[in-house]
Every structure is written in C-alpha cells, then in structure tokens.
Amino acid sequence: MRRSTSRSAGLGLVDVLVAIVVGTALMGVLMATMSRVISSNSTASDHLQSTVVLAQLSEQFRRDVHAAIEVRADQATGPAQTFIFQLSPAERVEYEVSDGALRRTLFSADQVRHREVYVLPGMKVLGCEVHPENRGEVALLVGRLAPMGLDPTAVRSRFRIVAYVAHERRERPIQ
Q1: Is 54 helix (H, G, I), strand (E, B) or coil?
Q2: Do 146 and 152 form a contact (C-beta atoms < 8 A)?
Q3: Element at 74 (helix H, strand E)
Q4: Are the C-beta atoms of 159 and 143 separated by less than 8 Å?
Q5: pLDDT, tens digit (0-9, with 9 covering 90-100), for 69-98
Q6: What is the pLDDT of residue 135?
Q7: What is the reported pTM?
Q8: Sheet harboring 91-98: ordered strands across?
Q9: Are 50 and 120 in contact (CB under 8 A)?
C-alpha cells in the first residue's frame, strides 16, 4: 500500500517570513516618505504664514510712514533698535526690533493705545533706513533666513519695504 504525501495548499514558514520582510521594507520606505512630506508641509506653512504677516506689516508700516510728520531713530535703547514716527504733536508710533520680532506701539499723549507684535518665521527684521534727502524715504529692511541645517543667522535674501514721510498729506487734494 502506498501512502501519498501531498503538500497542503497553505503557506510555509519561509513564505511567511519573506512576506514579513517585504512588508517591513515597504513600511520603512513609506515612513521616510511621509516624514519628508510632513516636513515640507510644515516648511510651506511657515513660509505662507511669514508671507501673510509680512504683507500685513508692510501695509501697516506704509500707513504709519505716510501719516508721519517726522521719523527718527532712537539710539539710546541698547541692542534693540527703536524707530519713532511722530504722527502729530500728541501721537506717535514706535517700532522696536528685538528678539526676532518687530513690536509696534501706538502712543497718544504718552499713553499706550495699541500694541502689536509681528513675528516672521524664517525671516529677520534687519533694521530701518531713513533718507530725508530722498523725499523723506523710509525703508524697513527684512531678510529671509537660510534654510534649516545651514547657518541659522545667515540671511539668504533681503527685502526693502519703502514708504515716504507725509506722503498721505502731499497726495490729499486741497479743499
């Protein structure tokens, strides 16, 4: 009598181990790809946020300079740079550059009326230039920082936000 030894139709131990190894390799590739996607999404989100904040800052800076009757830099503030825009004898706006942010404070008769802080991720406010000989030109200097992994203080590119003192007053028609 002969016994037949037929193999079962199921998977053997080697087949299961090969499937686990292939699955693990695919999961590793998938995780690395997902990590890169999340990182680039975060970078894109920071870039978009800084662009929006820069646009808001530009608008506010130009409005303040156009409304000013005088612009001056306060050198007595130490490492922080302060720029004062005199709007009227009783009103002034101060911009202070420090700690990677730009603080805007509106004073009325030496009382704080409004305070804002502009934080620009991936950017740095470099200072302000005042050129009274050039029709009262005032420029806010902003730099885009180098990407992560490089020197975090290195400025990759620079922007100038330009406005002219009392421009609002000059453009207003005489009534």
Answers
A1: helix
A2: yes
A3: strand 70-74
A4: yes
A5: 888 877 655 555 888 999 999 999 999 987
A6: 77
A7: 0.69
A8: 70-74, 81-86, 91-98, 101-108, 111-119
A9: yes
Distance CA 43, CA 134 (A): 38
- Distance, in Å, from the CA atom of 8 to the CA atom of 153, rounded to the nearest integer, reads 67
Taking a C-beta distance cutoff of 8 angstroms, is the pair 84, 105 a contact?
no
Tokens of 18: 């090969």
Residue ranges per structural domain of the chain? 13-171
Q: Which two tokens stand for residue 78?
A: 């130490």
Q: What are 90-140's pLDDT values in tens digits?
A: 999 999 987 678 899 999 998 999 999 998 877 888 888 888 787 788 888
The pLDDT of residue 23 is above 90? yes
What tokens does 87 get? 């709007």
3-state secondary structure of 57: helix
Largest CA distance in the chain: 122
Contacts of 107 (CB under 8 A, 6+ apart): 91, 92, 93, 94, 113
Among residues 68, 112, 114, the alpha carbon closest in space to that of 88 is found at 68
3-state secondary structure at position 114: strand
Cα separation of 96 and 40, whole Å? 32
Closest CA to 64 of 124, 123, 116: 116
Backbone angles phi, psi at 7, to 5 degrees: -80, 145
